[in-house]
Structure formats: C-alpha cells, structure tokens
Amino acid sequence: MTALQALALALVAIFGTAVVMTREPLKQAMVAGVFGLLLGVLFFLFQAPDVALSQIGVGSVALPLMILLALTRIRSHDE
Questions:
Q1: Interior/surface letters 35-64, b for 16+ CB within 10 angstroms, e for the rest
Q2: For 46, which DSSP code?
Q3: Which residues of the chain have pLDDT under 50?
Q4: Where are the domains of the chain?
C-alpha cells in the first residue's frame, strides 16, 4: 500500500465519521458530497476507475442534490 492510498483511507474514515456526526441536514449533505468524492478518489487509487466514476456521479452529485431538493420541499411545506 502506498502512502497516498493510506492517506485516502484515513480521509475516507474521517469524513465517514463526520457525515454520521453532523446533525444539521444541510451541512450533512455537503459533507456527504465530499465523502462521496473522496470515496471515488479512493476507488481510483485502488485501480477501479469504473467504480470511481460511478461513485463520483452518484455519491458526490446525485445523492447531495436529492437531499437538498428534499430539504427545500420540506421547508416549503412548513411555511
């Protein structure tokens, strides 16, 4: 294992914990997006570029976008 792979593993572990520990949904969506991007980088470093592209598309774009859309819809119904 290279130093870059070890660093990526450590960052994924830190941001995975940060996603769980974040209480506010808006901040959690942003942290989850960064976590998805880091996970995609980790997959790329472990020589799985097809999985990395899928992860970046879903984990760092689609999932946070869906969370943000759900939050705006919930907030519009509350008003």
A1: bbbbbbbbbbbeeeeeebeebbeebbeebb
A2: T
A3: none
A4: 3-78
